[in-house]
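Ops channel
N.P.: pipeline sanity check, posting one input/output pair.
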């Protein structure tokens, strides 16, 4: 692998990304792609999720372009805080898609369909408030106007807090399979922009 090669690192959100999720479809079509795997997708702990990202990026040389969805966005920003200046230079860009408002409400967690009725609600340990990280790598936050996990005004607040560009995706729910988003051409254009910038 060349030093300038860019590896696409997908960072799924709570529950992971299934076979029809746009992250999975992108992984199949991009020659250098690697998914962050977590030991526990349903009962997340921020320290464990950050460690999962770090394990994944250390498997590859060259540059990293992280594409995170939902809770994976918050884990990615917490991971950024752990990086040395040398590591930060390896990050080509961050594409943060549909980060939920924090803390995650019990109503949203139950309505998501990720948990069976008899399963206890997760505590989302370490995800109680939005990170104040300000990545120096080019960063895009993509938000939907009708995301049940986050009001658009909160997405605007996060974009200001993270000093990144906010991209209005229109009315696309939580920008996942349930919203009818498949290979997501708009997102692919944003990905290409980050690769070239």
């Amino acid at each position: 692998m060349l030093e300038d090669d860019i590896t696409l690192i997908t960072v799924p959100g709570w529950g992971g990304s299934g076979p029809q999720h746009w992250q999975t479809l992108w992984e199949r079509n991009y020659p250098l792609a690697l998914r962050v795997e977590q030991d526990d997708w349903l009962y997340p702990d921020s320290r464990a999720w950050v460690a999962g990202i770090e394990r994944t990026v250390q498997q590859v040389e060259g540059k990293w372009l992280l594409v995170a969805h939902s809770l994976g966005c918050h884990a990615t920003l917490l991971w950024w805080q752990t990086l040395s200046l040398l590591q930060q230079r390896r990050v080509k860009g961050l594409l943060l898609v549909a980060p939920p408002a924090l803390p995650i409400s019990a109503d949203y967690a139950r309505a998501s369909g990720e948990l069976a009725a008899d399963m206890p609600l997760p505590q989302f340990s370490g995800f109680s408030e939005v990170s104040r990280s300000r990545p120096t790598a080019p960063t895009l936050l993509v938000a939907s106007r009708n995301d049940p996990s986050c009001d658009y005004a909160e997405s605007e607040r996060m974009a200001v807090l993270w000093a990144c560009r906010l991209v209005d995706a229109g009315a696309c729910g939580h920008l996942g399979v349930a919203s009818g988003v498949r290979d997501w051409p708009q997102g692919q254009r944003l990905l290409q922009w980050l690769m070239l910038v």
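N.P.: looks fine end to end. The helical segments are 22-29, 46-57, 71-80, 85-88, 106-111, 152-162, 185-196.
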